[in-house]
Design brief:
The chain is mainly beta and 151 residues long. 9% of the residues lie in helices and 49% in strands. The protein has a single domain, classed as Immunoglobulin-like (Sandwich), CATH 2.60.40.1890. The protein binds copper (II) ion. Copper (II) ion binds next to strand 8.
């Protein structure tokens, strides 16, 4: 009996207090090793019963990280639009960041993107605890671009 109670208490103590965001398929993609910017993609599932938002990302890889969406204009041009308020994630829903869609723009890279490298990023939410994960870096020539005129 005592043992059972102890195990139960240990299980309680080990349970994360607010691990309510499940992050998967994370990757950082740069358009070649000379790229001035890179993009981070991942999926976030809100496993809580509270509506939440992804409001920011920080990483040592970049001086600045912005949340962007990609949209096509009427004349067929593709442009990226900053989303300073972040992306809503309803309870039980999965937010998808992917090439050609929503993404995190990493600007002011502190090092050259190197295929096979890894970078640590931290996702910040309006309500849930931040989630830090290590993400593989890939360099794709002709991949994500559009901020080349930044500098
Ligand atoms: Cu962008």
């Amino acid at each position: 009996m005592i043992r059972t109670t102890l195990a139960f208490l240990l299980a309680l103590a080990a349970a994360p207090a607010a691990a309510q965001m499940q992050v998967e398929h994370a990757t950082i993609s740069a358009a070649g090793p000379m790229a001035q910017a890179a993009a981070a993609y991942f999926t976030v599932t809100n496993t809580s019963d509270t509506a939440d938002r992804l409001v920011g990302v920080t990483t040592g890889l970049a001086a600045m990280a912005e949340l962007h969406r990609t949209e096509e204009t009427d004349d067929g041009l593709v442009r990226m639009v900053p989303e300073p308020d972040g992306f809503a994630i309803e309870p039980g829903e999965t937010l998808v960041l992917e090439q050609g869609g929503r993404h995190v723009m990493l600007m002011g890279l502190s090092e050259r993107p190197e295929d096979g490298a890894e970078a640590e990023i931290t996702l910040q939410f309006e309500h849930a605890d931040p989630v830090t994960l290590t993400v593989p870096v890939t360099t794709i020539l002709g991949g994500h671009s559009g901020h080349d005129s930044d500098g």
